[in-house]
Structure formats: structure tokens, C-alpha cells
């Protein structure tokens, strides 16, 4: 199956190169970063849960770690939809990007110190 060279890609043998816009690249980096944070927090939550019997102080951290895992998992999901939408140029991509921006703003408000 061959694809003609054009605005969205070029054909080199059987390899299709998709030309990505700068915003799509930024969304991809953001998606990877948020996924890594969510995964790292989830692993930390699992380790704390396993060790809470031996170290009772760790059980006090479980609720906050659970909230952080939930927040960053939702952000990573929004970033994934934003990246996919931007890559495929679907109509709903702006809604996904708006959800991502609102999510980042809300997480920032949650973690911003009160002064």
C-alpha cells in the first residue's frame, strides 16, 4: 500500500514518514513525561502498600500517594488523547487539549503552597 508524498508524509520505500507539527511533538513529550510520573507514583504506592506492615509510617502516606496516582493518571490520559488527536488531526483534538490544560492547572493549584 503506497501513500503519495504530500503535506502529511513522504514515502521512502515501504517506510512512511509522518511530518509532525511542533505542538504535536510537545504533546508527545508531555504525554511521555506524565505517563512516567504516573507509573513511578503507582510503583511507589505499591511498594508502600506492601511495606506498610513493617513500617507503619508508610501507611500514613498511602492516601496522598493514591490521590497523586489518580491525578497524574488522568493527566497522562488527557495528554495521550491530545497527542493522538493532534497526530491524526481529528476534530475533537482541541477539546482534549483544553481538558489537558485545565487538568494541569488544577493539579498545579492542588500542589501550589498556600501563603
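-> sequence recovered:
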Amino acid at each position: 500500500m503506497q501513500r503519495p508524498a504530500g503535506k502529511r508524509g513522504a514515502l521512502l520505500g515501504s517506510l512512511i514518514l509522518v511530518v509532525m507539527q511542533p505542538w504535536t511533538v510537545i504533546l508527545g513529550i508531555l504525554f511521555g513525561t506524565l505517563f512516567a510520573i504516573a507509573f513511578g507514583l503507582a510503583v511507589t504506592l505499591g511498594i508502600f502498600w506492601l511495606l506498610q506492615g513493617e513500617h507503619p509510617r508508610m501507611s500514613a502516606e498511602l492516601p496522598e500517594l493514591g490521590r497523586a496516582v489518580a491525578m497524574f493518571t488522568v493527566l497522562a490520559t488527557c495528554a495521550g488523547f491530545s497527542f493522538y488527536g493532534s497526530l491524526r488531526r481529528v476534530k475533537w483534538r482541541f477539546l482534549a487539549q483544553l481538558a489537558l490544560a485545565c487538568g494541569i492547572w488544577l493539579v498545579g493549584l492542588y500542589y501550589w503552597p498556600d501563603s
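The chain has four helices and two strands.
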